[in-house]
């Protein structure tokens, strides 16, 4: 019998990024789910062909760091930097091609998945060659996303969006979007709704188990008996980690455990020192050790910056739930659709540190509530939050769609 499998095409590199690199870690999750559901999976990157475990380790390597930019770059206008970045991305897309033969050559390929990146279509090309359905995963439409962060492309934004995004989106059999907001942007760019599937971030059930020792991890981190407020991810401005610091300053006997790294880490450290908040910074850790650190937490946070769009699907949310960790998350549409307040999480007013502190105090003082949320989180994770579930949904949706992979490339 011919083995079934899926190929995952990841155009990005880890070099020059501070860990964890979400694109690599989440792609490893998708691929691990496909391997459990189908039997085999392969991740293809500019660095070669990897199994999910290798990609996961590469995306969470402790030595990942952004190189120190030369002094002269500070004097280059932002517009010039953006234009140069777009040109580099165009050149990389033209040079990145997936071999038409590989370890998947003897397998029955159920689909070829590609993570969306400007100008890249290597996965779509491979799908056409293999006569397999194509899935384009879009965590965000990139020109629109950059506009949300005030990145300007005066005069050339429409060209980049048309040739770097729309031309690729309309080729795929299925567009998998991280959230409803992203799906709306994909539809704006010309994709019909029946070809769009919302696929929130998932979790690897083989990795996230609840048999981790909280006491030994707390001892290693010198936490003792404090109430541990946890957060995990990349330290970037839109993650609004300062809200966690401010809220923790109002919760007695608490300690912040911040797992990960990124450009805002130094600023968060200074802010915590100003407010006198005890914090443990771990830096980047191997992803397979994330469950150990979650075991040391009493509550896990998802945060949203006030007045800014929240369009992504946080990987941390799925991982908190799978670890049986009580969650406090912002009461916004794409979270509200995935959590039930008081059942598998607590919803809090976005950007309101007072409200967040109030929820944290309640959880600190109510072990029965924490236990109920733990049970609800584990039940929710088991039923809805595995990567396997997303793979099944992709396969079911593809079964009901006409194919587009064999149509000619536009323009």
Question: What do you see in this structure?
Answer:
The structure is a single chain. The protein is of the alpha/beta class and 411 residues long. The chain has 2 domains: 4-202 and 387-399, Rossmann fold (3-Layer(aba) Sandwich), CATH 3.40.50; 214-384, Rossmann fold (3-Layer(aba) Sandwich). It is built from 16 helices and 13 strands. The protein has helices spanning 22-38, 52-59, 78-95, 122-130, 142-148, 157-169, 180-188, 214-221, 242-248, 265-275, 290-295, 315-322, 333-336, 353-365, 367-384, 387-399; strands at 4-9, 39-45, 48-50, 108-115, 134-138, 174-177, 196-198, 227-232, 254-259, 279-281, 299-301, 327-330, 346-348. The protein has a 7-stranded mixed sheet, with helices on both faces. It has a 6-stranded parallel sheet with strand order 10-9-8-11-12-13, with helices on both faces. Strand 2 (39-45) and strand 3 form a beta hairpin. Helix 1 runs antiparallel to helix 2. The chain starts with a strand and ends in a 12-residue tail after the last helix. Mean pLDDT is 91; it is low at 406-411.
């Amino acid at each position: 019998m011919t083995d079934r499998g899926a190929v995952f095409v990841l155009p990005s590199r880890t070099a020059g990024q501070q860990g964890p690199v979400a694109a690599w870690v989440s792609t490893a999750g998708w691929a691990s789910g496909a391997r459990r559901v189908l039997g085999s999976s392969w991740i293809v990157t500019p660095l070669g062909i990897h199994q999910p475990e290798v990609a996961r380790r590469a995306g969470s390597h402790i030595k990942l760091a952004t190189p120190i930019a030369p002094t002269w770059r500070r004097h280059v206008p932002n517009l010039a930097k953006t234009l140069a970045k777009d040109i580099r991305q165009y050149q990389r897309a033209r040079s990145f091609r997936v071999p038409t033969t590989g370890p998947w050559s003897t397998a029955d390929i159920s689909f070829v998945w590609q993570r969306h990146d400007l100008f890249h279509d290597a996965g779509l090309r491979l799908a056409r060659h293999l006569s397999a359905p194509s899935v384009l995963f879009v965590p965000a439409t990139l020109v629109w996303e950059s506009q949300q962060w005030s990145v300007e492309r005066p005069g050339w934004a429409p060209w980049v969006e048309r040739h770097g995004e729309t031309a690729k989106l309309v080729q795929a059999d299925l567009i998998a979007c991280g959230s409803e907001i992203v799906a709306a942007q994909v539809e704006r760019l010309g994709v019909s709704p029946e070809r769009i599937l919302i696929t929130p971030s998932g979790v690897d059930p083989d990795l996230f188990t609840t048999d981790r020792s909280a006491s030994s991890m707390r001892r290693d981190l010198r936490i003792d008996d404090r109430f541990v407020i946890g957060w995990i991810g990349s330290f970037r401005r839109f993650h609004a980690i300062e809200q966690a610091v401010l809220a923790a300053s109002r919760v007695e006997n608490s300690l912040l455990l911040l797992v990960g790294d990124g450009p805002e880490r130094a600023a968060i450290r200074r802010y915590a020192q100003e407010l006198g908040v005890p914090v443990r910074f771990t830096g980047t850790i191997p992803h397979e050790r994330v469950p150990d650190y979650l075991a040391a937490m009493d509550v896990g946070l998802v945060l949203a910056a006030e007045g800014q769009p929240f369009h992504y699907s946080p990987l941390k949310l799925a991982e908190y739930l799978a670890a049986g960790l009580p969650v406090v998350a912002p009461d916004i549409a794409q979270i509200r659709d995935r959590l039930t307040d008081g059942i598998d999480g607590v919803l809090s007013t976005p950007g309101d540190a007072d409200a967040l502190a109030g929820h944290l105090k309640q959880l600190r003082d109510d072990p029965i509530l924490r236990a109920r949320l733990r049970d609800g989180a584990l039940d929710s994770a088991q039923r809805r939050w595995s990567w396997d579930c997303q793979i099944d949904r992709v396969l079911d949706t593809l079964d009901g769609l006409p194919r587009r992979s064999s149509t000619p490339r536009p323009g």
